[in-house]
Amino acid sequence: MESGCYKKLDKHLSVVGKSPEMTGAREKVTGKGKYTVDMKLPGMLYAKILRSPYAHAKILEIDASEAERLSGVKAILTYKEAKLLYVPGHGRNVDEFALDDRVRYAGDKVAAVAAESNDTAEAALEQIHVKYDVLPALLDPAEAMKPDAPKIHPELSNLKGNFQVVHKKAYGDIERGFREADHIVENRYTTSRVCHCSLEPHVCVASWNEEGRLTMWSSDQTAFAMRDSLCNALNLPMSKVRVVIPVHVGGGFGGKYGSAEGIVCALLARKAGRPVMLELSREEEFYTTRTRSPCIFETKTGFEKDGTFTARYVKAIVDLGAYAYGAVMAERAGFYHMSLYRCPNTAYDGYGVYTNNPPSGPMRGFTSTPIDFAIESDIDEVARELGMDPLELRLKNSIKTGDVIPYNDYDVTSSGLDQCMLLGSKRIGWERRQKNPGEVEDVKKRGIGMGIFIHFAPKLAGPNERSVGCATVRINDDGSVNLFLGTPEIGQGLTTTMAQIVAEELGARLQDVNVTVADTEKTPWGVVVSGSRTTVETGGAAKAAAVDAKRRLFEMASKLLKVPAGELLSRDSRIYVSGTSDKGVSFSELLQRSDVRAHGDNIIVCTATYQMPKYVPPFGAQFAEVEVDTETGQVKVVNIVAAHDVGRAINPTIVEGQIEGGVLTGIGYGLTEELVLEKTTGQTINPDFLDYKLLRAADVSKIETILVEPVDPVSVFGVKGIGEMGAISVAPAIANAIYNATGARIRELPMSPERILKALRTRRE
Amino acid sequence: MESGCYKKLDKHLSVVGKSPEMTGAREKVTGKGKYTVDMKLPGMLYAKILRSPYAHAKILEIDASEAERLSGVKAILTYKEAKLLYVPGHGRNVDEFALDDRVRYAGDKVAAVAAESNDTAEAALEQIHVKYDVLPALLDPAEAMKPDAPKIHPELSNLKGNFQVVHKKAYGDIERGFREADHIVENRYTTSRVCHCSLEPHVCVASWNEEGRLTMWSSDQTAFAMRDSLCNALNLPMSKVRVVIPVHVGGGFGGKYGSAEGIVCALLARKAGRPVMLELSREEEFYTTRTRSPCIFETKTGFEKDGTFTARYVKAIVDLGAYAYGAVMAERAGFYHMSLYRCPNTAYDGYGVYTNNPPSGPMRGFTSTPIDFAIESDIDEVARELGMDPLELRLKNSIKTGDVIPYNDYDVTSSGLDQCMLLGSKRIGWERRQKNPGEVEDVKKRGIGMGIFIHFAPKLAGPNERSVGCATVRINDDGSVNLFLGTPEIGQGLTTTMAQIVAEELGARLQDVNVTVADTEKTPWGVVVSGSRTTVETGGAAKAAAVDAKRRLFEMASKLLKVPAGELLSRDSRIYVSGTSDKGVSFSELLQRSDVRAHGDNIIVCTATYQMPKYVPPFGAQFAEVEVDTETGQVKVVNIVAAHDVGRAINPTIVEGQIEGGVLTGIGYGLTEELVLEKTTGQTINPDFLDYKLLRAADVSKIETILVEPVDPVSVFGVKGIGEMGAISVAPAIANAIYNATGARIRELPMSPERILKALRTRRE
After folding, report:
1. Do the Cβ atoms of A446 and A701 come closer than 8 Å?
2. How many distinct structural domains can be found in chain A?
3. What are the residue ranges of helices labelled H in B562-593?
4. At what angle do helices A494-506 and A534-561 cross, to 10 degrees?
């Protein structure tokens, strides 16, 4: 870890900026951590879901009588009981039922069984006989966009054809911009369908009590939104449903929220009168859990001789699949397009299209990662056209502190982007890149490339979505602190980071702070962990609650020490009079004074909410050095340098870990990962780790992380979101490095050996 | 149920005063409710405690090597590892260790074992070889009080001999009072050692995580005090220990808090590295769980010819047993003595004495029930001496609204005591009582008697004990309400009553309110459920939190409806403009408005504390009609009329249930129940339901309840504590009824057939 040139004088901080051990790490590495899947309730049944082999069909008849007679089968559910139970999703869409009499992709849910064992449930699925009326399937977005294409969601009468989103934005005069350009570069990029691959699958356990109260445990990314969706679907008051996300969740990456499985599981448990566990198999994880949206980007860039942009246009086509969880991406990619570089004339046309493919949706760097591949590959093409150093071109045109983003008039209060570029290029050895790409005669060619990013997630939330942090701080009689957060810990280190923020603000010993997360009966409301928002938003609330609790402590200490509260300081769970070293009182002494105790003045429970006054985007520059085997098409990633403007790293080790994990995701996205659908049936043909080609830690040579910490005046402790950033610019950096090595440009993801060999052949021809 | 003459116009109340079904009742009656004892954690071990056969001994040596070698034994604990871990108790005493090298009663803990099964643990106990140095045991308080008696707690150097408490209080001039009396009555009463007999025994489960966090589930009456005592003993921050009291607890009655078992269980679990359950057997329940304190009361009452009291004196000797959990009673009985009747000259000498008997402590009506037997029997004797109707004597001398209690200068803000006496005497048919006790010639003689009571518990808490209620109200987006309370539901109906208070104050639908209790990671701080304080104190906090939440709702509604908040009313989860029926908005509509949601203004979490500005004592008069078989000594209770000043019954059915349960306790205390200790060894000889003679519901003919509801200006909704009241005056009412039937006076509890026959013989002789 190397700190950026903006590093502040942090001498007044005692906990923030350090890297204490991550809470829960010991339980994870010793295998003792209990996940949802480890639960076992007395009498618990196991559920399985029957899935459609057809990409599009109407269910004419379901005969479950044979399955019902199987010994050990306790409940069967079909659309007859679950239709009209909407699955609330990501914002606007109400296009999916828990179960339906229509299936819209190969793998869509048809019926569900709860039985004494998983095996019995599986066996029962085979005894459920379904008569389908198979309908024509639209597997290609281009087909689905045709005016005469059959509607996949005829019930959504407000939609035109299969378009869920048609989003057009323009600033300046795009036509004039192109007219005035010295050069115009046009390209077409396609990105792939990839999967989150959380090590823990989607799993939930539902249990009802005698009075109709539902408790659900889940490996979800949200407790409260899941509670609300269950209440909506099942018509229950929110006070009577408890959703618990256990302290250990094996990853989420955007794939674990708002799913139909929870409702199905709850309905099965109610019908059977027993608790039910529903765990998705690895196969189901691959083909039913909302992949990253495959996209097509058509780009057109106009620029002057000196590299100044005159016009930038992107058309995006997003394959939503059967349900519209990815809809928002078709809009927000436009924001991304318009915010990373300065340009007076920009336009964006975005289309989110229903197909009969598996539904796509949020995934790490949801609205940034696919389009960044197109934009940052394009920048290299522009630089080549100009004969300019792509680093120089980026430094010239990229957004700077104080700039206003036209899309939403936000001004950039701090950007460490230029520093990321400068520090990162130095570290990777930018001067070593090929001057004449592809000219070296070796079979194995080396090259260096880069990509940059901005990221934007919260505050663009849908009109009805809260982008607010919430936290409760409780001080106990011994001065120890409980922090309650409604947001789950999904492995990102939330509990550690939040404890550091509260310990810092309160002046408490870190080891005295305990964090409780994501249980709708334990914690205040909490937003879904998504959009790299938690440290900023929930951290802001945690700090605010700590400020309030500290005020209470200082008021008491002020009376006791006969010193104005404004002259007090706290550190290590002790309150001092400023300027003295001996005059003071420990939290514990203060709170256990008999007069304070007797009147309950030491009962300190402070709840605070926090909304960012304005969004503070993170930035970064990622560099790749690759070695391309021109005979096999194999690409070896020699080194990745990830230089990130993280605002402030509350816990640098956790931040680095997040970035490294993201980089791995980015390498897989760039080179190997892809869910492949059979062209005629739409069935997923590689739903397993081996054929999907998920990378392992050992597949990566070297990742170097540089943390740049500019002073941001807006955010809490100056932090910026970091969870998704590692993934964004890795694929274009690799594409640009491959180009630098070989002179061959790959515009399709993943950049597989086949595609590389093909591109090399094209170049030679 | 019949309401008292003070019944208010409650038309403005919609939920309070009604009797909705008790939460959890269905789970209880269907047997589906899960208690602590039903828990089963993966890898859980079972613990047993080795107990001393000697009432007093020093442990010279413990050889556990054989036990350790037994297959399935996972951890053994002796004083070597647990000494110096104090068991915090009821207020002041620090006289008990988790395990000690000294045993102080027959049944005291010596060692503990955790093993794969209860049977293995039991077997291991037999393989632990202990060498004792047996010491002389003090089994009679009179012996223990002698100046030359050996000290049972020599380590408590500040104590004089075996006296834990010597408490003397006097008002007026007691000598002069007796000199001026026309009559003086002197008596001596003894009360018995009885047991709480909770249907669920003491049971706890301890589990540690990899980071040294402890979670404990327990059937205790307190989550937070248990957490604090574990932290004290084990030197852990309070934030890192979670204590959960499950929603179902099978009774407490004062017997379930502050015990050593929790610490032993936690230590075993830490040593074994696995979860441990420790459940006391029924035998242990009887002889180790702090019985009601056996007492001796010497009374002396001076009075004028017209029944006016001139002097009242009581000397109380309380057998604390080996540990001083009952110490406070030796003081507070003095308060009781000085508060029930007006008298210008009163004095009290109280002694709390250590013996080598099983420890005694709090039990339903802790400081009231034993002394009420003496005082209320005495009043009948005074009436007989005067030839006066005992009802008339009580009406003449009992404390009235506006009186000031000399003991602590509290004024009585409301008393329904006279009304209780008048209504109860009418109901029992007071005029049917024998004019000449014992003169009827039948073998089976009927008689009617009565007793009255005041009760006092909170606000006399120790100097370091908080008598404060605390509650958090959370409003969810759909307007439903979660109420969080740190106090446990032990079957008393807390969750129902508190939901009613919050629903009433907030104007919410009762079915939308859910109550979460007693989990140190879910709820704000909560006091132990004891002293009939919960509805008053915690209810006060629940109301205050609801007031705050309602203020937030009304502020929002005021903006929306453009009407000052002061003109708004709420009912059925809807806010109305006062005086209109159609203008308004439902909680749900209000909170789900997109502007409100987006900014998180609908995140409403309000925590409040409440301390009673002054104590509001409950009162009551209880009447018994009995039939005494003068040949067998058997007493049949024909009818009990319990007329109680309950302030206001939030849920009349629950109040009646509490009173009825208390009456049953009182009948057992009066007639059958007694833990009998062997005279020379101090061993309990009847530790089972049969020999202990616990009454069953079927043993009681009839209980009639009268609720008197005077307007109290101080307490929340006018409520008074009711949990313990049913038990207090039943025994003296029965004693007085037996006297009325037979002319024989019994001054020892229980009033067994043997004692009745003996008294009848004495009378005849």
Report:
1. no
2. 3
3. 587-592
4. 30
Which class for B25: exposed (0-12), middle (13-18), buried (19 or more C-beta within 10 A)?
middle
Residues A358 and A424 in one domain: yes
Q: Please give the residue of chain A at the shortest CA–CA distance from B470.
A: A603
Mean pLDDT of chain B: 93
pLDDT of residue B765: 65
What is the pTM (predicted TM-score) of this model? 0.94
Residue A7 in this model has a pLDDT that exceeds 80: no
Which among B238, B479, B254, B183 is positioned nearest to A587, based on CA atoms? B238
For residue B299, how many other CB atoms are within 10 A of its CB? 22
Q: Tell me if A26 and B525 make a contact (CB, 8 A cut-off).
A: no
Instruction: Considering only the beta carbons, identify the residue of B521, B522, B597 that sits closest to A466.
Output: B597
- The interaxial angle of helices A390-397 and A369-386, nearest 10 deg, is 110
Domain that holds residue A222: 36-135+201-249+256-288
ipTM over 0.90: yes
A:B CB pairs within 8 Å: 156
Asked if B591 and B623 sit in the same domain, the reply is: no
pLDDT band, very low/low/confident/very high, at B88 (cuts 50, 70, 90): low
- Reduced to 3 states (helix: H, G, I; strand: E, B; else coil), residue B628 is strand
Contacts of residue B582, defined as CB under 8 A and 6 or more positions apart, other chains included, come to none
What pLDDT, in 10s, does the model give residues A348-364? 999 999 999 999 999 99
Environment class of B638 (CB within 10 Å of its CB; exposed 0-12, middle 13-18, buried 19+): middle
The whole-angstrom distance between B444's CA and the closest CA on chain A is 48
Stated as kind and residue range, the H or E segment containing B501 is helix B494-506
Please state the rounded mean pLDDT for residues B318-345. 92
* Residue of A215, A603, A607 best to disrupt the B interface, most CBs of B under 10 A: A603
Distance CA A79, CA A96 (A): 12
How far is the CA of A260 from the CAs of A220, A244, A329, B355, in angstroms?
12, 17, 21, 65
- Kindly state whether residue B267 falls inside one of the protein's structural domains: yes
Confidence of residue A127 (pLDDT cuts 50, 70, 90): very high
Q: What is the CATH number of the domain that holds B110?
A: 3.90.1170.50
Please determine, for residue B719, whether its predicted confidence score (pLDDT) is greater than 90. Answer: yes
Check: CB of residue A240 under 8 Å from CB of residue A520.
Answer: no
Average pLDDT, chain A: 93
Q: A524 contacts in B (CB within 8 Å)?
A: 474, 603, 605
pLDDT at position B465 is 66
Q: Is A87 exposed, middle or buried (0-12, 13-18, 19+ CB in 10 A)?
A: buried
Q: Given A550, A580, A610, which residue is the final one in a domain? A: A610
The set of residues, in sequence order, having a beta carbon less than 8 Å from that of A12 and lying 6+ positions away, is none
Structural domain includes residue B162? no
Is residue B313 domain-resident? no
Summarize pLDDT for B246-286 with one digit per residue, the tens.
Answer: 999 999 999 998 678 999 999 999 999 999 999 999 999 99
Rounded Cα distance, B161 and B147, in Å: 7
Q: Tell me, yes or no, whether A281 and A296 share the same domain.
A: no
Compute the distance between CA of residue A325 and CA of residue A495 in angstroms, rounded to an integer: 28
| pLDDT value of position A91 | 47
Angle between helix B369-386 and B730-742 (nearest 10): 30
Q: pLDDT for A385-430, tens place per residue? A: 999 999 999 999 999 999 998 877 788 999 999 999 999 999 999 9
pLDDT band at A765 (very low <50, low <70, confident <90, very high): low
Domain presence at residue A693: yes
Mutation for testing the A interface, residue in B215, B227, B238 having most A CBs under 10 Å: B238
Amino acid at B82: A
Handedness of CA B721, B727, B731, B734 (dihedral sign): positive
Q: DSSP letter for B364, please.
A: S
